[in-house]
Design goal:
Length: 474
């Protein structure tokens, strides 16, 4: 198939590379001249796992152009993957999409072949039929559904795993103006995905609502796990990780995104939740769950601040490990780590920061207040507390067991994801989120069997100064 892509950013460039690597003929256009020039020169201006290698593989089928109207003439699909920033009321701004439609509409006027205009950018429900379709019909002089097709086809990908998620989706969501458009897009994805995903083809409005609902539901699962963790922290012997692992085994619930930790952040979940609330209000319904989900997410960093404040007084030094909103990316947008850093600094703590990829991005947001450390061990040197925030595998691999601090100093170690649970950490006062006080040392595991997810109970203690290795096995 011949595909034109408008917007070669974090999602657009990866999508273009995936289609081209699978043998489709792809042309791309981006309105940022420097970005376009870099791509024309053969560079890869986006940092994403595996993208450079995939682009090299895809190059024979991938070109970039500065003539977007000709791109419409020469292709079967126009994918629109441009920014739709959030407004202060939570709704998305469609300005960049409208700029693209102003190119596509007139180009369709002179085109005889059926062409699919596919909106991938996240939009408010009602945008496709209420706004984009009339604009395209007016500018092209043609009818949507017979002369050209309009589709809404958002992606559910996580930065750092965009290519893998794109090629192996659980679900391909396709809202289509007509049956032919739905068929063309399902054919395109069947010939591109490595797996055999569920293809959900529906009307434009249903797809628009599905996209927001799905992300909003995921944030609800995350906040449920975090509320459970907050409760477990008050119950002797309770462990939220054991409970959520068992809950996830029930097919009505499922294990994904049901893990307590630092909460959600990034460029999609927080704003999609707010857009869902704005959409509900516009429809005449006051959303009840979604605002509480956001509140619970804020409470995670409040819990961390109060845990640290209970044990240390400002200006004690606090090292934060992990600043990106998730592992494998440098993106710090809506990162919970940065929210925590701000709260700690406002409370008077001296904050030290480390991240394998996101240090410069964090500095651009937080300025020169904190100390920025290129090396995790430098960050830990001379600290009074450590919070393990982003679940980078690198952090689990540090030699925590043999870390020593001068003068019998025992820094507080707060482990948001339980990655060090069960390890012998003689020189730290260890706390894991979601773990109750006086967690008992248990002999044989309570749950055993073939399923490793259920064999989670490990000997563990966390009673501060008396903490030692005796009775702990790994
Ligand atoms: N990145 C993600 O994780 C993700 C996931 C799901 C959905 N989305 C949605 O996809 C859309 C794009 O996100 P992104 O992260 O790729 O954004 P991005 O900012 O990384 O890239 C957008 C690109 O579009 C270009 N652009 C802007 N206006 C243009 C125009 N008129 N014509 C051509 N190019 C134009 C920009 O120069 C930029 O390179 C957004 O609506 C976002 O919500 C993103």
């Amino acid at each position: 198939m011949r595909i034109g892509v408008f917007g070669l950013g974090k999602l657009g460039l990866c999508s273009a590379a995936c289609f081209a690597a699978k043998g489709h003929q792809v042309v791309g256009f981006d309105s940022n001249p420097e970005h376009l020039a870099a791509l024309m020169a053969g560079a890869c201006p986006i940092r994403e796992t595996g993208l450079e290698e995939l682009l090299a593989l895809a190059r024979p089928n991938f070109t970039v152009t500065d003539a977007p109207d000709a791109m419409v003439q020469e292709t079967d699909f126009s994918f629109i993957i441009v920014p739709t920033p959030s407004r202060s009321d939570g709704r998305f701004e469609n300005h960049a999409i409208e700029e693209v439609l102003a190119v596509i509409g007139p180009a369709l006027r002179g085109k005889n072949d059926f062409h699919v205009v596919n909106i991938v950018s996240t939009v408010m429900p009602g945008s496709c039929e209420g706004s984009f379709q009339p604009v395209l019909e007016r500018l092209s002089g043609k009818n949507c559904g017979t002369d050209f097709g309009l589709a809404y086809n958002p992606e559910f990908i996580a930065l750092g795993a965009v290519i893998d998620n794109f090629l192996n989706p659980d679900l391909v969501l396709i809202g289509a103006s007509d049956e032919r458009t739905g068929r063309l897009l399902t054919g395109l994805y069947r010939s591109t995905c490595d797996n055999e995903p569920r293809l959900a083809v529906m009307s434009l409005i249903n797809a628009e609502i599905t996209k927001l609902s799905l992300n909003c539901f995921v944030t609800m699962k995350i906040s449920f796990a975090n509320e459970l963790a907050a409760i477990c922290e008050k119950i002797p012997g309770a462990d939220a990780a054991v409970i959520t692992a068992a809950l996830g085994e029930d097919s009505r619930i499922g294990p994904k995104c049901l893990k307590s930790g630092l909460g959600f952040g990034g460029p999609c979940f927080p704003r999609d939740n707010l857009a869902f609330q704005a959409f509900a209000q516009e429809a005449g319904w006051e959303a009840c769950l979604a605002p509480q989900v956001v509140r619970l997410n804020h409470l995670v960093t409040e819990r961390l601040l109060s845990l640290i404040s209970r044990h240390l007084n400002p200006p004690a030094r606090v090292a934060l490990l992990g600043l990106a909103y998730k592992p494998d990316t440098h993106i710090v947008e809506e990162s919970q780590s940065l929210h925590l850093a701000r709260k700690l600094m406002a409370a008077g703590f001296a904050v030290r920061l480390h991240d394998p990829l996101a240090l410069d991005e964090a500095r651009a947001v937080l300025g020169e207040g904190p100390a920025y450390c290129r090396n995790a061990c430098d960050c830990l040197r001379q600290t009074d507390a450590v919070a393990l925030l982003t679940n980078w595998p690198h952090y689990a691999g540090l030699d925590w067991e043999r870390m020593h601090f001068p003068d019998g100093h025992h820094p507080l170690l707060v482990d948001c994801w339980g990655i060090l649970k069960g390890r012998c950490l003689p020189n730290f006062r260890y706390f894991s989120l979601g773990l109750g006080p006086r967690h008992p040392v248990i002999g044989p595991p309570l749950l055993t069997g073939d399923n490793p997810k259920l064999t989670l109970i490990k000997p563990h203690r966390e009673d501060g100064a008396a903490w030692g290795c005796r009775g702990i096995s790994r």
